[in-house]
User: Fold this.
Amino acid sequence: MDRSTFLYVTYIRTTAEKLWSALTEDTEFMKQYWFGVHCESEWTAGAAWKMVHPDGRILDAGEIVEAEAPKRLVIRWRHQDKPELKAEGESLCTMELEEVGGAVKLTITHTMEREGSKLIGAVSGGWPKIMSNLKSMLEGGAAVLPEPYPAKAHA
Amino acid sequence: MAERRDTDILFKALADPSRRKLLDLLHAHDGRTLNELCEHLEMTRQGVTQHLDVLESANLIATARRGREKLHFLNPVPLQEIYERWIAKFEKPRLKALSHLKKRMEKSDG
Assistant:
C-alpha cells in the first residue's frame, strides 16, 4: 500500500449538531476531552486551521478543505512541532457524522500518501482516547482520562 | 440498557478465535480486502464474511470503500473504552511496569 490510513468509528448518543459543535467551535469543551488542546479556525472551507497546545505551541496547522455542518469536515493537516513529523508533509483528516437511531456515528479517517507514516502512527494512538473521552463527556458529562498518559506522572 | 447491549455484543464478538485472528491480522496490517483476509484463514469466504459482520456490528472493525474494493480496518475505540473502564483508573502504573518487565524478559529470551 502506498498510503498510511486509520479509520476509527464511535457511536455517541447525542445529536449531530452537538457533536459538530464539540468538534469545532466549542473550544472550552474541546480542551476538556482533548487533554487541554484546542483547535482554532473559522470552520468554513478554505479557512486556516491550527491545533494549539495548552502552553501556546502550535502542534499542527493547515486548512479546512470541506465543512458541511453538521455532517462532514475535512482538514488538510500538517504537523508543526516535531521536525521529523513536519517533514512528512500534509495529511488529510476527514470527520463524518451520521445520525443512526438515537446516536451519531462519528467516523474519523486520517490518511497520508506515504507508507509507514510516523505522523499517522503518532495520531492513531491519540484518537481512540480522544474519541472515548468525547463519547463519555457527551453522554455522561465527565472525561474518563483527564490526561493522555496518566501512568507517567507516577512512574 | 443500551450500554449493556453494546458491551454484550463486544464480548461475544471477541469470544471466538477466528474473529480474534482477524483482529490480529488487521492489527498487523490495516486496510485489507476480504480476499487478503481469506488467505490467512482455513475457512470459506462466506465464513470469513460472517465473522467480519459480527466484528463490524460490535464496532471492532470499520470498513471503507476505495474504488471497487472494500477495505477493513481495526477500530480500537470500543477496546479503549473497556480499558478505561476497568484498568486505566486503578492499576495503570503497576500494570505498565509489569508489561515493560514482560517485554524485556521476552526480548532477552529470544
Residues 60 and 76 of chain B are 6 Å apart (CA to CA). The interface with chain A takes residues 2, 6, 30-31, 59, 62-64, 73, 75-81, 84-85, 88, 92-93, 96-97 of chain B (CB under 8 Å). The radius of gyration of chain B is 17 Å.
